[in-house]
Design goal:
Blueprint: E1 38-39, E2 51-52, H1 82-85, H2 94-103, E3 116-119, E4 138-142, H3 143-147, H4 157-166, H5 175-190, H6 197-201, E5 204-206, E6 217-219, E7 240-245, H7 250-253, E8 254-255, E9 258-259, E10 274-275, H8 282-291, H9 300-308, H10 312-326
Parallel strand pairs: 2-3
Antiparallel strand pairs: 1-10, 3-7, 4-7, 5-6, 8-9
Helix pairs in contact: 5-9, 9-10
Length: 333
């Protein structure tokens, strides 16, 4: 099942209704298809709890010494930037992927094992490619999502809602923007706030490029809520692999037969300038009342680091209380 659309739309102030965006019961959608308030145009299973899909090709080891020539690109992807299409995956052997997933937590501990499998890529795979006939349901993920900004599977409803509204696949959203999303989610959870995709997107705008490449979120004029994870994000582009959705994991990624977010790159990611607060819920207004008092450019790396500490909530909450009390950026930097 692929949730990407085959037709390209202009970067206008409206977006087409897709199967991935129209199924959310928590979103209010205008007749134009625009969400309300949106303005603008190794041998055993590794510790991470997932299973590598083994390659039965006996020639895999000998292929390590083979010099790969550039395979022909699939047709139908002229809407994708050449910068994206030039990137092939470094995870072309099962052993390299096994080593990675054995050393990095990738799933939520409380979730049952076996709901997804990790699969290496072929030399012809590109991160923007969709599902071919006969392939299992899958989506691509970057290793940087797990090592840098600490994404865990399955994705939560808030995260999937952001992807659904932006009409982007996970790898279509730039890692720095994933860092903003993660920090916002963690702080809201720490304060016990009822977070929504709209409240997060209110602090940003999206201006996708044409041809399509990685979508970045830009801070509103009031100042960046979070600092980028890194000013120059390098070496993430080739670190992608397949996440295969197993039958037991269907419920985590689908509303019935409809994906909860675009599993594959779309030619028409949403362009928006701002999200009006007048369309927000009372719970969203509570979030604004707290986040508006925080200093700007909160350190993404430190917030994520505190989250991983054994005393993460004690340490992080203490820092935020100081930030609310004194409004000093130096406390968090």
């Amino acid at each position: 099942m692929s949730s990407s659309s085959s037709s390209s739309t202009s970067r206008s102030f409206s977006t087409s209704r897709s199967s991935a965006t129209s199924q959310s019961s928590s979103l209010s959608i205008h007749s134009s298809g625009m969400p309300e308030g949106l303005v603008g145009s190794p041998k055993d299973s590794p510790p991470s709890g997932v299973l590598v899909v083994r390659d039965t090709d006996a020639a895999e080891d000998s292929s390590r010494n083979t010099t790969f020539s550039d395979p022909p690109l699939r047709s139908g992807y002229n809407w994708v930037s050449d910068l994206v299409l030039r990137q092939s995956s470094k995870y072309r052997w099962s052993s390299s992927l096994e080593y990675f997933i054995a050393s990095v937590p990738m799933v939520v501990p409380e979730v049952e094992r076996g709901f997804v499998s990790m699969e290496k890529c072929s030399v012809s795979d590109r991160v923007c490619y969709g599902r071919e006939e006969g392939e299992p349901d899958f989506f691509f993920m970057y290793s940087a999502f797990f090592t840098d900004v600490h994404v865990r599977l399955p994705l939560d409803e808030f995260t999937m809602g952001v992807l659904r509204i932006l009409n982007v696949a996970p790898t279509q959203l730039h890692p720095n923007s994933w860092g903003y999303l993660q920090c916002f989610r963690l702080l809201c959870e720490m304060f016990g706030l009822v977070l929504s995709p709209q409240s997060f997107l209110h602090y940003y705008s999206a201006r996708p490029s044409d041809p399509v490449r990685w979508v970045s979120l830009f801070s509103q004029s009031g100042g960046a809520l979070f600092a980028p994870y890194t000013v120059s994000y390098k070496h993430f582009k080739t670190g992608f692999f397949r996440v295969v959705i197993e039958p037991t994991g269907h419920q985590h990624f689908y509303y019935g037969d409809v994906p909860k977010f675009p599993l594959h790159w779309t030619p028409n990611p949403v362009h928006y300038l701002y999200w009006a607060r007048s369309s927000m819920t009372d719970e969203d207004q509570i979030i604004f009342s707290l986040f508006d008092r925080l200093p700007r450019r909160l350190p993404t790396r430190k917030i994520l680091k505190f989250y991983l500490c054994s005393q993460r909530w004690v340490d992080l909450s203490g820092m935020c209380v100081l930030a609310f009390s004194y409004g000093s950026r130096s406390i968090l930097t």
